Amino acid sequence: MAKTANPLKGYLRSPKLYITLPSGGKFSNIQSISDISAELPICALTSMDETILRNPDALLNGESLVKVIQSCTGIKDVYELTSNDVDVILLAIRYATYGNDLGIVAACPECSNVNDVTVNIEPILETVNELEDSYDVTLESGLQCFIKPYTFRDSQRAALAAFRETSELNNLINDNADDLAKLATFNKSFIAMAELNIEILSSAVIKVIIPATDEDEEQEVKNHKHILEWIKGINKSEADMIINELNTINDLGVTRETTVTCEKCAHEYETRLEFNPSTFFETGS
């Protein structure tokens, strides 16, 4: 028996707006790039999407956001998107679903009054700037290190690990174990977090160029194992140079600062818009 065409198909949601991603797909893999056009269509949340976003465990490990972004954009490999792209996509989904107004709270640095502020999303989306084709930093050793923004996978791994370590340390404080056992557990947690940070840092390194010398030609290193071993062994000042450049890159893409006037003392100050998925969508309902 032939399938009957659904007469409601023509009434399914359609894109509410189209956005340009900061990365333009530059730093994603081939599968992700094929999913991203010059302008990405953004659909509003479905009722199922809203339900998914209420699951705190799925939000914590990133699965909720992956499913919601897939639903609202059609992008399949969400984990390979840059964190810059994900922030802009979340902002656009918020706009497509609930409109232009976004409520935030911002404490005044002068009088500490907590102000309830309404921010317009549309002007923020208009500030999206495209990332450069490549970023590099020349280290003290003369090596040229080419880096890329953190992926959504990297960001989620770091956030989940930080949450777990904080929970373990809180449990440790309330534990009845002796101080030596607590210290051993603390050291174990600290080392695990440090190793993860190094691994995530190395994943942001695309390649390292060893400059030519009188004896040797220029050499390009792309092997991830070699880069990871190198990252583990470089001095702190060189690691900080890479981290500082990465922090700058990961902050690009969209203007996050907005001006607020305190309702109590009239002081004007800047506050930063945070894209926290656990609270970002709750004010829309």
SSE arrangement:
Blueprint (H helix, E strand, L loop, with lengths): L16 E3 L10 H6 L4 E3 L4 H7 L2 H6 L1 H11 L9 H16 L2 E7 L6 E7 H5 L9 E4 L5 E4 L4 H22 L5 H25 L1 E6 L8 E3 L2 H10 L2 H15 L6 E5 L6 E5 L4 H4 L5
Antiparallel strand pairs: 1-2, 3-4, 5-6, 6-7, 7-8, 9-10
Helix pairs in contact: 2-4, 7-8, 8-9
Could you characterize the architecture of this molecule?
The chain is α+β, with helices and mostly antiparallel strands and 285 residues long. The protein has two domains: 9-130 and 253-284, no CATH class; 135-250, no CATH class. 45% of the residues lie in helices and 16% in strands. It is built from eleven helices and ten strands. Strands 5-6-7-8 form a four-stranded antiparallel beta sheet. The protein has a two-stranded antiparallel sheet with strand order 1-2. Strands 3-4 form a two-stranded antiparallel sheet. The protein starts with 16 loop residues before the first strand and ends in a 5-residue tail after the last helix. The model is unreliable at 30-34 (pLDDT under 50).
Straight-line distance between termini? 43 Å
Number of strands: 10
Number of helices in the DSSP assignment: 11
Helix/strand order, N-terminal first? EHEHHHHEEHEEHHEEHHEEH
How would you describe the shape?
globular
Q: How many strands, what sense, and barrel or not for the largest sheet?
A: 4 strands, antiparallel
Instruction: Enumerate the strands of the largest sheet in spatial order, edge to edge or round the barrel.
Output: 5-6-7-8
How much helicity do the residues have? 40-55%
